[in-house]
Write a structure and sequence with these properties.
The protein is of the alpha/beta class. It contains 10 helices and 5 strands. Helix 2 packs across helix 6 and helix 2 packs across helix 10.
Length: about 250
């Protein structure tokens, strides 16, 4: 099923679109270190996979789905010590999302869904704050299924739920399914497991990957990743997005 990229439309095509059943999906990730084996854009790859699979499901419900260009620069302070990581301030991220919402609303869009794959707490907080403010202001309805919270988190993999999942089996599997040419396979296969729970370290007050026990910017079990698991996980992520949007969007089944 063909999904429309927002940026591929002309302005006149968007103006003419029936927006009553239209939703824009914004993939949200980060540009940050993901071990010695995965690219800096790993989160963006995952977010785009989630967005596209969710869009396919929503189209089958009768929605008109537009995929926005991804937001690739977000709060990424935990990986700040590693080359290539780009981090912005939470207030910058919040303001950027509000500005995007203002523009979409001005052109008749009523629903914005966030397909987020970056899990840093300050980033998640910025997304929630912006979503709540935008919706409360009546600009448009923002749908944000936060995979770090119940019930969404309970449907993801055991490694994800353990908290030891940055650049490990969970994320590596999705990149192997979506962009296998970007995985440094010889390195990945030989990486030792790092069972240190990043989420537990965050709760304990650690503020960097290094302090959390990830000196090479990965946590979990990268050698156990597989494209098959990645495909299964993308299906689940797409379903979470589909269900969250359908529950909020008027006129969908």
């Amino acid at each position: 099923m063909a999904i429309t990229d927002l940026s591929d439309l002309t302005w006149e095509e968007l103006r003419a679109l029936d927006k009553a059943r239209a939703v824009v999906i914004l993939p949200v990730g980060a540009t940050e270190a993901h071990g010695p084996h995965l690219p800096l854009g790993t989160d963006v790859i995952i977010a785009q996979a989630m967005a596209r699979r969710g869009a396919e499901k929503l189209e089958r419900r009768g929605a008109t789905v537009l995929l926005a260009p991804p937001l690739a620069y977000t709060v990424a302070n935990y990986a700040a010590g590693f080359a290539g990581t780009v981090s912005i301030r939470p207030e910058t991220e919040h303001a950027l999302l509000e500005d995007i919402a203002h523009s979409l609303s001005a052109h008749g869009i009523r629903y914005l869904a966030l397909a987020n794959a970056h899990l840093e707490p300050a980033h998640i907080g910025a997304l929630h704050a912006a979503a709540e403010h935008i919706t409360a202001a009546g600009l448009l309805t923002v749908v944000f299924p936060d995979v770090t919270r119940k019930p969404w988190a309970l449907r993801l993999t055991d490694e994800f739920k353990s908290g030891a999942c940055h650049a490990g089996q969970f994320e590596g599997s999705i990149v192997m399914a979506e962009r296998p040419e970007l995985v440094r396979e010889e390195i990945r296969r030989e990486l030792p497991a790092n069972p240190a729970s990043l989420s537990r370290a965050i709760r304990d007050g650690k503020s960097t990957f290094e302090a959390a026990g990830g000196p090479r910017a990965y946590f979990g079990y990268p050698a156990q990743a597989s494209a098959a698991e990645g495909q299964d996980t993308i299906e689940v992520l797409g379903a979470l997005l589909d269900e969250a949007v359908a529950a909020r969007m008027l006129g969908l089944d």
